[in-house]
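User: Um, any thoughts?
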Amino acid sequence: MPKIMTIAELRSELAAREKKLAKLQAQREELAKQLVDVDREIVALNGKAIAPARKARKKAARKTAAKKGKRTKRGPSLADVLADVLVGKGEVRVADAAKLAVGAGYKSKSAQFGNIVSQTLSADKRFKKIARGVYTLRRGGKAAVTKSAKKVAKKIARVGKKTETQKSLGDVLAEVAKGRKLLGVADAARLVLKKGYKSQAKNFQLAVNKTLMRDERFGRVSRGIYTLKG
């Protein structure tokens, strides 16, 4: 799982974004001035101004709204999935909760997925904070899970037999990394497949690299090179 950012790192990231935003706003203002000058030249040559492309903007807005609509129809929210997978788990760390959510089929492209899970657990009343980075599902929290989350649970049950017969990619990587100071992504992928691990990923090396990046048991030495911590 990705490393949880410190307060200093978050502040640095926020400052960088604010700086970039100010630069983009300045560029926008400059382009707006240029557009005014162009409109004036068009009026001088053509005798009339060109109306703003409202239709194009409306069409783009509809497309954006449609994409958002499709996104919301994909499945349950992260909070609902967490409420479902934490049933009967007792006290769970944020990193483990994130793994359970991903294992339940929740998809996220965020590089800071662990932070998102932590914020969700902290904000949702269905979860109770036990200690720093440790949460549990409150009594009765299961009742708040939506119907869509229940569908995910049924899907887990259908594929449960398959998941029981095969270890996770992270666990197999931890096994092949034992006794090795350094582990390259290509060698890791080869050793994992040699262990009999089955994968349907189109780019298995990429899947291995992502797992090594996100799993807290591994540390990144350099690009494409990792080591097993401890």
